[in-house]
Design goal:
The structure is a homotetramer of 447-residue chains. The first copy, chain A, has 447 residues and is mainly alpha-helical. In chain A, the strands form three sheets. The first copy, chain A, has a two-stranded antiparallel ribbon with strand order 1-2. Chain A has a two-stranded parallel sheet with strand order 3-4. In chain A, a hairpin with a 2-residue loop joins strand 1 and strand 2. In chain A, helix 3 packs across helix 6 and helix 14 packs across helix 15. Chain A is elongated and about 100 Å long. Chain A starts with a helix and ends with a helix. Chains in contact: A-B, A-C, A-D, B-C, B-D, C-D. At the A-D interface, helix 1, helix 11 and helix 12 of A face helix 1, helix 11 and helix 12 of D.
Chain lengths: 447, 447, 447, 447
């Protein structure tokens, strides 16, 4: 091969990740070949022993991977043949590189899903722990980045537990859908040998076998599905990154990031920069890019296997590694966040966050909601003009806008009370928060 | 508002799609307000009657949608208030536009998933019917667009049934994950009114309620998940489009597209162009684009609701409409395909597609597979040089390359026999194809 | 044609935008046919008169566009033939729909580039006007969203003039590259008629003609190039949107958005939401999506024209319309921004923004920069512990950290003086800002 | 720093590519510091000598890059300080890592543009050489992958020269736009030292200096612009890859790929697979992905520098490396293509490719084009029914459809003559092809 072409063709620079799966797949295949009488048992025994040795040597870096051998599969097979000679040349009986690589990739993908689910749960636990510590911390709830209504900080933190919980679900669904062994699909048309696909699948831990050999060798849906789930998880992480950057700014100062996750400036001695939240926010780009890379590769490919599919590996690896790294680093960072409860509490008191409560109060006095909303709008504008918050306006003054207002309004304009009045499932009332924490504690404990 | 700003702000140009869901949501909400004693039952009766009238008039285009009223929600509410006055102003009690639009969108998304699943199954049935008609049609199986091994045409067609079956699964998973009512989440912090979220959810057909109000109003994961599933389905359709373009070219001539799906040229009188397969292939681009649009919108948004989320609607609608249209048109087109069985059969006989069988034959004679592969490689090169296919080489000549070859080799070099020797689950042997057709018949019948 | 197929095939729902260009192209083509003696001059006269009538009627909506006629080209030609009969049937002599649509699209693209360049300059002028008004407004400059060094607000605003200036350049480059007439390329292989391509190109305002007919009919590079430029411009707009959202939050309160660009909440009476900056930020997603849509369509297409190219139109239109709308609305919004100079000034004084100046001061006293940086780091940490800013620390105290510090340090710790010391090209010193404003005034005046 | 955070923060794993630019930038900066009297000349001499040593040692791998030092800049500076002590600590006077990395990246980008332009021209030369060899090779021209009209193979090949020529233009435009030195912009607000920005820029080979320091440190437009140009070039390469896969299939057999660019199958001994064209086609995905990664990173970033920008480096490097590799390998592959002129010629004769000529012929006899098109449509359908090509139909038979047809029609139905009748600029007539080859020869010679 032309040297440039060989360099482009070689995949061992990234498919080394498949090594343990490749060896496991070969051992399961070899055992089956013996079981079915396709290859003599003695040869298979030598194959298995040889494969285990090759794995050990590769793990210990006692063997070099050779780009001239193109991919991990040929590297392993060549090393095996060097060890056991003729018997090695029988290993590829009844399979093809096409179903072999599909099998390896699925085993990798299953393990990647598992790893990411664990990573998500670790991060969710970090949020849950912070939520437990901040049930009683009042905070401003925002919409449009404008202060909106008072909440408990725990409520805000639990929103992330919910978001990352959905990511978990998507990865598990992907896991289940990909949990089929393609081995035995051959190059595209299965094989003429009387192989036992179900037996091999079982040995490798798959729940079943694929149903169409042409589909099986050309299918990389699982990579797209995992990377799509990762892209959305990363979008969630970008929201978290954004909030941490905001909240640690001089203007917000709601939280202090743990020092181990920040860095200084080469010229500004006073700077403590939120590097990690920024990087996590930015890494969203590469996972979105990985998703587009994968989808683009698949566009317009005729059946069954095409070499284009080699280009599906790196985006998958990159997305899995990136998300995993971000989850790890964010788990540590979130665990170390120090919220400024006093400052958060002051922020709740500034910006008319209880205006909605006043409108709701008026509804309880019989005013239709739309009208109540309008009246309170006027009150707020007057209050802004006077530079006072609602609770500071004398009741008589309020009554000039809405005669229905009575002394009992005070209980509605206190943020702490207001937040507990929001006592419906999913709401920020203490009772609801405690119930949700208990539910999540159970969910996250059992895993 | 500034006119340019108002034009940008208005969403009624696309969110009219939410109308039936908006009305259904309002009716369920109103009933609950009465049930909980939050709003007088008489007012609620008038609301419901009024909402039904508004829906009827909007369906019959007897009411105009007014961009000045910004969105479908305000259009409906304004029309209602015009009809029933004061009572209408009570409808918004205990909810916000933020949870209202989230509810509408989820109802739309549930129905979209259902529609797409039906569309996928219709296309799968079209493939299944063609597969039944072509169990006995031999065809060349390809890898790298090079003829590889003989298959049955049904096998190739069933690969698409498998691919679109996975798309179906992804949409159902999305359906289940999104099947939670966000109503009652308010603007972001639920509500102070003693609403019954579960009751409303049940009335609207949701399986449950969301667990965190801040998450619920800012969550558009379901849109991303559906569009990601649509993008992958569209990638599958692009593979189909590509194959139809190839197969209907003068070079392949494997299939004749039904006339109703082709068009001519403005200047070349002889042309019959595969316009529909090309357009379906191309429309993949817009769904990939919709996915990126959605993910980009979400990147870096702080909690909870931000106006940015308005931009999640159009990509969702476009992806759903595009995929639905492509599935419909492809269902008709696939049903009308006329395959040229004779030409497919001839193609199987040209290009040494049974070379693998010869190698496998040698393995049955005790030759290790790698060695058998090498020997057959030499035979093929000699055959190419002589311009003959393998079956045409005298046995004596074959034996010069591999003395193990006997008279029984003929049975291996016949494509029809070869394909039935590939008799493992997922393989192209007649028995396997028939079993898979039976399995799919059952799956696709029960729906 | 099958009705679903016809619906998919029809492009008149979006290519009506090409109407004026289609008519202009046909008139220029017709004139040439007469000039070259290919079609009798009398016929051509009737064509031109007829085309002008058709255009008038379409502009006045006196003619309906018929989807059954598929595209704008056939609609125009059919309307023409209805008017002038036989002569209309000669119009298509020596051209094909493939070079016709390529020509129409390029004429559209040229005009779109022009429109966007004007839109960019209008926005740049709005920034320039604000910059002129805020040369003397000090503001904190940020990196990592942490206060970093003092700047003039004008400096920050001029950064946007620079960014949008590059977008302008990219669109002009795209303009120049696409400024070639493809007419005469026929379906793919030019034409047998003795046409005059250069003459038609000149009449249509093109600077030249394309050099390869196969390339010309299959080339949509110009659409990709424009949309890529639009995507980057939109990324710049998203940065602006983000800053406006931040700066108008309760935490920053650096700016008040003009009321006409904000909206309220359906339930929170106090809210004034930055809807337009949020929408502009979000619309970035759709332009990124348009870019991916276009690139995906082109991937893997064989030469020359393929129907897939029909799918390149909508992303181009959407990107152009979106960017144009965002530029318009942002021009109005930026013009109406009211900055809070006092609050910006206070922010400059909080957060040790002159720490770098102190380090630089030490360098002037002979301390190597890295050492100066370390010393000042210690001073800042001590100041934070004491809760004072640098200017408030007694000199004797400062000297305990760095004996080189003298009385002259005060001039370095005053933000207003500090910023003028940053007197290099592109820096925030008043002199530099004024020079840059003068330069831009000249650039933006002459257009 | 937390170890996970440090691992995420470190960029030296990829920014080592900037090393030569970093050293060049530091040397130019240091010289200026001496020239301006900011740092003693003796110190600067030691810096320069030291930097050159560091570069030499890094090139020779005599120095290790240490991830603990985070990036290439700190690695270089640390190595320098180790060599020259105190003097090294003065190097960073008047600059910041923010303008330093911006400078390094621009120097890299300029050199990358140059490299890619050379790569494009090499590939264009390979096409031009093949075109020269195939001026007289007739080939079917396609639209919709249906045979359309006869062309010269050279014409098809020259279409690629035109496509890659536009890519060249885009890269040169990017080059010119980015050709401004940001050095001196400091962290975001320039510097208090009396530096000479223009002098440093000149020394580094830049054509000018940036005009706004806040913009300059946060600007990565040049990366987006280069990667967008690369994405489109890669889309062109994907079209080439697709055509090579098609043309080397058993069905087309128009071309034989050079052996050094193909590979075999692990189980199918007869296979010669077009691996390189497939990989090049697929690599389009990663460059599209790189583009989306970059754009996503930029979305919504406030000014000026944010750590997110670190994530713009890898997509730029990956896109540049990928395109460069694809151009190299395709240059070799295209040079080695062996076209089957006989088979191409036969293909021209099958499929009624001269139907348009017959219609054009009728126009010369006074038939309006649309009518001529319809008549020829009927003739072609009759010919298909009889299984003959147009040239084989007796004239008397043709006259039954169109009495205007005379003996002179034969000259129109001969593909070789037909193609030379297409004699307009950009057309496939021999004269035109030769002129275009001459033009390109000149263009590609002078570089």
């Amino acid at each position: 091969m032309d040297p440039d072409a060989a360099a482009m063709n070689a995949s061992v620079g990234f498919d080394w990740r498949l090594m343990p799966h490749d060896i496991a797949g070969s051992i399961a295949h070899a055992k089956m070949l013996a079981r079915q009488g396709i290859v003599p048992a003695a040869d298979v025994d030598r194959m298995i022993a040889g494969l285990k040795e090759v794995e050990k040597e590769l793990r210990e870096a006692a063997l070099d991977l050779d780009p001239a051998l193109e991919d991990i599969h040929m590297n392993v097979e060549a090393a095996l043949s060097k060890k056991i000679g003729d018997a090695g040349a029988r290993l590829h009986t009844g399979r093809s590189r096409n179903d072999q690589v599909a099998t390896d990739l699925r085993l990798y993908a299953l393990s990647a899903c598992g790893k990411l689910v664990l990573g998500l749960d670790t991060l969710r636990r970090a949020f849950l722990a912070q939520a437990k510590a901040h049930v009683d911390t009042l905070a401003p709830g925002y919409t449009h980045l404008q202060r909106a209504q008072p909440i408990r900080l725990a409520h805000h933190l639990l929103a992330y537990v919910a978001m990352f919980g959905r990511d978990r679900g998507r990865l598990l669904d992907a896991f289940q859908r990909l949990d089929e062994s393609p081995l035995g699909s051959g190059a595209l048309a299965a094989t003429t040998f009387p192989i036992d696909r179900e037996g091999v699948a079982k040995e490798l831990g798959f729940s079943g076998v694929s149903k169409n050999s042409m589909d099986a060798v050309g299918d990389r849906d699982f990579a797209v599905e995992i990377v799509a789930a990762a892209a959305l998880a990363q979008a969630h992480l970008s929201r978290l990154g954004e909030e941490l950057v905001l909240w640690s700014s001089q203007e917000f100062r709601f939280v202090k990031l743990p020092e181990g996750y920040c860095s200084g400036s080469s010229i500004m001695p006073q700077k403590v920069n939120p590097d990690i939240p920024e990087l996590v926010r930015a890494k969203t780009g590469r996972v979105f890019g990985d998703l587009i890379a994968l989808l683009t590769v698949l566009k317009g490919l005729p059946l069954a296997y095409n070499k284009d599919l080699q280009e599906t590996q790196e985006p998958l690896y990159d997305a899995v590694d990136t998300l995993h790294q971000c989850l790890r680093v964010m788990s540590g960072l979130v665990a170390g966040l120090e919220f400024d409860a006093a400052r958060l509490g002051r922020a709740v008191g500034e910006g008319y966050l209880v205006a909605t409560e006043l409108a709701d109060y008026l509804v309880t006095k019989g005013v239709p909601f739309r009208d109540a909303h309008d009246v309170v709008g006027k009150i707020v504008r007057a209050a802004i003009a006077s530079g006072v918050e609602l609770a500071a306006i004398p009741i008589a003054e309020l009554q000039r806008f809405a005669p229905q207002i009575g002394d009992d309004v005070a209980g509605w304009l206190d943020a702490a009370k207001a937040v507990d009045r929001r006592d419906v499932v999913g709401g920020p009332a203490k009772k609801q928060i405690e119930a949700e924490i208990a539910r999540l504690d159970k969910e996250l404990a059992k895993k």
